[in-house]
Amino acid sequence: MKSYKIPEATIARLSVYSRYLSKVEQQGLELISSGEIAEGSGVSPAHVRKDLAYFGEFGTRGVGYNVKELHRHILKILGLDLKWKVVIVGVGHLGTALAMYRGFRDRKFEIVSLFDVDESKFGKVYEGIEVKPFNDLEKIIKEENVDIGIITTPTSSAQSVADIFVNSGIKAILNFAPCVLNVPYNIELRNVDLAVNLEVLTFNIASKQKK
Amino acid sequence: MKSYKIPEATIARLSVYSRYLSKVEQQGLELISSGEIAEGSGVSPAHVRKDLAYFGEFGTRGVGYNVKELHRHILKILGLDLKWKVVIVGVGHLGTALAMYRGFRDRKFEIVSLFDVDESKFGKVYEGIEVKPFNDLEKIIKEENVDIGIITTPTSSAQSVADIFVNSGIKAILNFAPCVLNVPYNIELRNVDLAVNLEVLTFNIASKQKK
DNA sequence: TAGATTGTTAATCGATTAACAATC
DNA sequence: TAGATTGTTAATCGATTAACAATC
Fold first, then answer.
1. How big is chain A by its Cα radius of gyration, in Å?
2. What is the span of the domain harbouring residue A30?
3. Measured in angstroms, what separates residue A53's CA from nucleotide C15's C1'?
4. How far A200 CA lies from chain B's nearest CA (Å)?
5. CATH label of the domain that carries residue B156
6. pLDDT at A2 over 60
7. Could you say which of A78, A205, A206 has the minimum Cβ distance to residue B199?
8. In the predicted structure, residue B115 carries a pLDDT above the cut 50
9. Is the CB of A52 under 7 A from strand D?
């Protein structure tokens, strides 16, 4: 693996390629070209080849890529050959939706538990995942060696959840609360702001209409 | 408004600034500097000023920005002074979560209806929003002049939902199904792939560990 | 005037794309 | 050899950042 910095957009695209390859593999196709992957993923062929080139040579010139092999390589690159333990804090609609989200379950993510402060939710089970008291969060992260924490609480609690994550030795945080979290540089943090997506669309529509 | 192309990232940041300004406005603060907005939004002060500069001059040199005024300006830029009608197709966990999502309701988005093919869901009401038969989708979009359609169906149905959206004259689509949709160039399309976010994190953790 | 902070320019940095040599 | 497609380079494009003139 080469050592220059790899764009985050490249990683996001690799994830998209892998999902498409998974579909293609199920269809029994053996060989695929960068052009076909590009079409199936909504990017350019040059993009596909460049993205892959960061990590090695996976194809055969004049021929293409072996679907199965390339798929396995990409999963390995993304760390998806490993099993990842995840907890979700905040058992609202979004939290439970994520707990049951097929896109997470199809990969090797294991959702260890859900957590909430609301006593009335304790013990509830969603698709085999139990809701536990927020007070047990730190203990369980340590015991189970949880890798990733997902925050789906209201904004007001997000930072304190993040603090507990950090103290418990979690490695990465996926935050759905629309706020800026302070975490040490060695913790991977990714914010997903659902409302931003709608607002980019309204901007685009509105600017068209103004013309 | 100047006419050179505005980066999409700028729009996404404006949305974040507006949320922070909303908070600051509630606290009763009147003046704010680019540095403070930057800190509250997790970006650099230069970024804040550059982003705003695409749209005009909203501050006073040596002084800063009037919180209320700037907030109103940004909302206007994003098209959030208007009311937007939204439908959600696919009443799974994610669909209902989005229907009830505060981040959407706090803005001026009006969720007109939810739609599903499953008869047993027809007539159910989530926070005042009724689930209607998928067959009525086209009719209602036209009748109600719906602006934005959200897709939270399984991947296999996503394209056919998009086709109906397009035929019904919807202006923008927010797609949560992990697939590439084909829509005419004049329809605004935005894909949100929740699993990609987790996979960017696993890549980052995995590459650290390999070092 | 001195201090502060914006608006804008120019420099830097990084990502995308086109093109082609390598090679099956 | 001719055709095809990768891997890689170099050119282009665009976004970020630093720096500073403008100005309150």
1. 20
2. 8-77
3. 14
4. 6
5. 3.40.50.720
6. no
7. A78
8. yes
9. yes
Quick one: how far is CA A20 from the chain centroid? 16
Q: How far apart are CA A55 and CA A48, in angstroms?
A: 12
Residue B1 scores a pLDDT above 70: no
CB B98 within 8 A of CB B159: no
Looking at per-residue confidence, does A189 or B4 come out higher? Answer: A189
Report the residue from A190, A195, A202 with minimal CB separation from B79: A202
Q: What is the pLDDT of residues A9-68, one digit of tens each?
A: 999 999 999 999 999 999 999 999 999 999 999 999 999 999 999 999 999 999 999 999
Through-space separation of residue B131 CA and nucleotide D23 C1' in angstroms = 57
Q: Are residues B97 and B188 in the same domain?
A: yes
- Binding site of A for NAD(+), by residue number, is 90-95
Q: Are A210 and B6 within 8 A, CB to CB?
A: no
Q: Whole-number Å distance, CA B105 to C1' D18?
A: 40
Contact predicate A170/A120, CB 8 Å: no
CB B105 within 8 A of CB B158: no
Among B77, B100, B126, identify where a domain stops.
Answer: B77
CATH number at residue A14: 1.10.10.10
Computed over every residue of chain A, the mean pLDDT equals: 95
- pLDDT band of residue A211 (cuts 50, 70, 90) is low
- Total structural domains within chain A: 2
